[in-house]
Amino acid sequence: MRKAEYYTVKTAVPEPAASHYESHTSIDITSTTLEPEGRTEVVVHVSSTQKQKSSLHAFPDRPASFYQDSYDAEPFPTELQDMINSMPAHCRTPQVLRAMFMAAISANTALDEPLSPDIKIENRIDDTPCPDWEFHYANKMWYGKGVPRSDPAKVQGCDCIGPCDPNSSTCTCVLRQNAFVHLAPSFEDSNGFLYNEKGCLKHDGFPVFECNANCLCSSECQNRVVQKGRQCSISLRKTKNKGWGVFAEKRILRGTFIGIYAGELLVQSEAHRRGKVYNRVGRTYLFDIDAFHLKALANDDADVDQETGWKLLYTVDAFHVGNFTRFLNHSCDPNCDISFVYINEHDIEKPLVVMFAARDVAAGEELCFSYFGRMDSDDEGKEAAGPGDAVYAPCHCGAKRCRGRLFAS
Ligand SMILES: C[S@@+](CC[C@H](N)C(=O)[O-])C[C@H]1O[C@@H](n2cnc3c(N)ncnc32)[C@H](O)[C@@H]1O
């Protein structure tokens, strides 16, 4: 007789912390064979424990969701992966694995985005239950060797009372934002914050300076969006020929914050070394921080690239640690775009790489961005330039004007 398997996943989601905590995920699996039916009941309990962090990044007392935490990249937490790999075979059913993956996501992000909708995992293509357990799920940045930590004392905050006024002529956050918008070559006559009243990004392509943990303004301030976490509903789904992808569960408005491209922040020597390895396997999660405003601010340094007058310093690698954004596939007609966002970071070279909806997205649409960077309408039909040692793979984005290939690294 066929054995029925029942599973339950319980996720203990902690209360938002009032101070500065980090979390660790743990899993308890209980497997009971119920007689006389011979059914197996597997109960998986995923919980997240909190531990107070060192005072290294201590800001004034604020909810945990206000912090742009960063951790040292090594060693990564691997308890979860180790536990899955050592689970008895009868517990490793597709349903249990998928439910554990979803529960681990919500446990690992409970502190920094307690109000975010759960991420569903679906596969209508084959029998793989969930993406490979090859990475640690986190929304935070993890600093690799040689990457300097942020210095909270150098992060400039405003002293507004209540929410900041976007038309203020004295708010330091409004003034800083304006200065950077005016620096752009495609300067649009935009003053004030880059978010509208609904929290949607008004203009692509400018660096965004959110109010931070040193600001006195309230949590309702219009200039606090990314730090409040994801609001849109998304799922991870297996695609026919691009591996796993990210899909909109409900309609998403243009300019909506989708997610931080979280991962390890690497110096160039390490990014190059890993890039060569990823080239060989034909799958990469590297993203260069090559923002136009960094090029515009570049000093005349002997060390810079002679052609661009600028030197790339950091790359994000989401292979070993990251969140759902590492599953965003490439499209030649993308509905998402990257903006560089600063929250609790004083170093202009170390913005967060953040995904926003580039247009209204219908429920069920796949969320994609261009791996070649922003393309203007003038660029259509042109060959997209990848890095010098790029390895190209066929593109399956399905866009009418597909360029036919994407670089795998
Ligand atoms: C950052 S990962 C995206 C997530 C990936 N689908 C997965 O399952 O892990 C990038 C890799 O996804 C695949 N990919 C992304 N966009 C694609 C596209 N338009 N056509 C074909 N493969 C694509 C390529 O293997 C690429 O190296």
TrEMBL record:
Cellular component GO terms held in the UniProt record: chromosome; nucleus
InterPro entries tied to this protein: H3K9_Histone-Lys_N-MTase, Post-SET_dom, Pre-SET_dom, SET_dom, SET_dom_sf
UniProt GO BP: methylation
Main location: nucleus
Keywords: Chromosome, Metal-binding, Methyltransferase, S-adenosyl-L-methionine, Transferase, Zinc
One Pfam family named in its UniProt record: SET
Domain SET: from-to ranges: 232-372
Gene3D superfamilies associated with the record: SET domain
Compartments in which it is found: Chromosome
Annotated protein name in UniProt: SET domain-containing protein
Coiled-coil annotated spans: none
Domain Pre-SET: 156-229
PANTHER family reported in the protein's UniProt record: HISTONE-LYSINE N-METHYLTRANSFERASE SET-23 (PTHR46223:SF3), HISTONE-LYSINE N-METHYLTRANSFERASE SUV39H (PTHR46223)
GO molecular function terms listed in the Swiss-Prot or TrEMBL record: histone methyltransferase activity; zinc ion binding
Organism: Sistotremastrum suecicum HHB10207 ss-3
Domain Post-SET positions: 391-407
